[in-house]
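Notebook entry, structure prediction.
Reason for the run: the old model in the group folder had no record of what sequence produced it. Starting over properly, with the input documented here first.
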Amino acid sequence: MAATQFYPIWWNRPALVTGQESICFSVLVDGATVFTGKAVRRPGDSYNGQPVIRIDAQDIVADYLYQNAPPVVSRQAPAHVAAEVRILWGATAEDLQDDPQEASRYYIVNDWSVDRSRTYYGDNVLLSLSAQIRNEYDPRMPIVLTVLCPGSAGYYSGSIYIARNGTAVYDEQVVQDYAVNIGYDPLLTHQQAGDVITVRDNTNKLDLSYRFAEKCGRYALYYINAFGGWDALLCKGVYTERETYERQTTGVRERLTGISTTGRQKENYLNEALRSITLRTGILTDDEASRMWHLLGSTWVYLFDMLDGNFYPVVITNSECVFKTYKNQNRKLVEYAIDIDIAQNFIRR
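New structure, fully documented this time:
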């Protein structure tokens, strides 16, 4: 059986319908109809001498994948990693409903990296979507790993083996559609300082390691990288927390007297607080710093508080990612400051 076609979402891959001037079409993602509309041939568009209508589904699929991204603590096959896309069409709305024709069927990977060296072809290919900045974890942090499993009909049949200090602790037969999220499993939490977790598969295409240091710091960031997989970064430097307030005030009709000093003619009836934190990565090597753009450009980020063990949604407010090296920083050690806002409203009346 031929390998299923997988494409990164940044790769524009239009479906072509020839011999028609206008059509009605539907876009199905993982079997669900997410868009129905009408397409008209643009003047001059042709293919092999025939008029052709081009249907671009990437923007539609991007919204679907973004809205269906699972939380970081989930171990379900993550819909945000890859999705089956089918484009059906008919000459009229009735044809589309009663006798639809398939213009295209393929899989889209939520990969925004514009990395032309990455391919998603071949049978039984097991591909890590990790782009870890560094492989160091605090013992209180859960491991996260997203693996893409493209193959015949979108399936990979194999096993993933996880070992702690060389002793097997996890062995899962993977016959997953599209992808598998490995993380937040009881076997993959509560490590000890000095532990090394290794992740491999039976085809030797996957070989990752996670090193656990002494407990240090309070926060870590979990995020979806540019390849579409979950990663985590332990923030080892000092951090600064702050709150800023947007105050709502109103006038109060209260007569002042010459006796009391407590009369009020202005009242603060509501405060909305924005909690912000500046985190620091600690010292990074040039190689580790080269992957900071995966974090700073991420649209899905969670803050993990190792004191209470909870995840909090955040947005990164840094406006740029400087690609730092030891040399271009005038031979200074490389470190980044990451500014985040807690993505929750705190109101006080």
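Summary: The first helix runs from residue 58 to 67.
The old model has been moved to the deprecated folder.
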